[in-house]
Amino acid sequence: MLAAPRGADRPLLPQRAPALPEPPPSPRAAPPRAQKPLPRRPSRAVGLPWAGRLVHGRQLPVRGSGYETWDPISKQVPNRGWRRWGTDRLVRTVRRVLAAYGRRHRGATPVLVGDLSRPRGGDFGPRYGGIGHASHQNGLDVDVYYPRGDGRLGVALRPEQVDRAAAQRLVDAFVRVGAEEIFVGPSLALHGPSRVVHPLVHHDNHLHVRLPGT
User: Fold this and answer.
1) Nearest 5 degrees, angle CA 49-CA 50-CA 55?
2) What secondary structure letter does DSSP report for 134?
3) Which of 90, 123, 199, 204 is buried most, with the most CB atoms less than 10 Å from its CB?
């Protein structure tokens, strides 16, 4: 009988596996880059003020420096959002002119701004309230209410309630920034260049400013 190899009767002990090298530290994940906002598409007035539409319009804020918005149908502040759309240029012009007016008349009641156009322009006739608008279809028109002589925040109900000096200053300001047409009340004797300023019925409580198309 062959002899067992020396040490064969000893119990087998578990063998320790050789140590593996530590894995290299994982690099920190780079923080996600902030997404740049997509550039805003420029607005476009398509067609005519009385037969047109508005592309990529901009909404006039509900209020701003020197002005509040006025809903001519519910007859209250502010105007509803869908009635406050225009081209970039129209919105910038309204804000700039009325902010300058407010700076020159510290403490004066804000000027009321009424309708511009609907979000995509198009028809703004009687089905949208009141007598509607024959124009205001392509984002180039805005109604601006004359300041009242008594300083109240509201629309003048009669021509004698209009602060005519203040109304004339607004007409002059919009002429200076390049208005193509301004319609004013026939009872107010407001004036300006004859190619721009025109008396028109239904405008004894507001002036209607139209900018040229681009």
Assistant:
1) 50
2) S
3) 90
Report the b/e string of 145-161 with b at 16+ CB within 10 A.
bbbbeeeeebbbeeeeb
Contacts 24+ apart (CB under 8 A), 151-159: 151/108, 151/109, 152/109, 153/68, 153/77, 153/109, 153/110, 153/112, 154/112, 155/70, 155/72, 155/75, 155/112, 155/205, 155/206, 156/204, 156/205, 157/205, 158/204, 159/185, 159/187, 159/188, 159/204
> What span, in angstroms and rounded, lies between the C-alpha atoms of 121 and 139?
6
- Asked whether the beta carbons of 142 and 113 are under 8 A apart, the reply is yes
User: What CATH number matches the domain at 59-210, 3.40.630.30, 3.30.1380.10, 3.30.70.100, 3.40.50.300?
Assistant: 3.30.1380.10
Helices (H), 11-142: 88-104
- Read off φ and ψ for residue 161, nearest 5 degrees: -85, -10
Predicted confidence (pLDDT) per residue in 50-89, tens digit: 999 999 999 999 999 999 999 999 999 999 999 999 999 9
Consecutive H or E run containing 166:
helix 164-176
d(CA 185, CA 206): 7
pTM for the full predicted model: 0.82
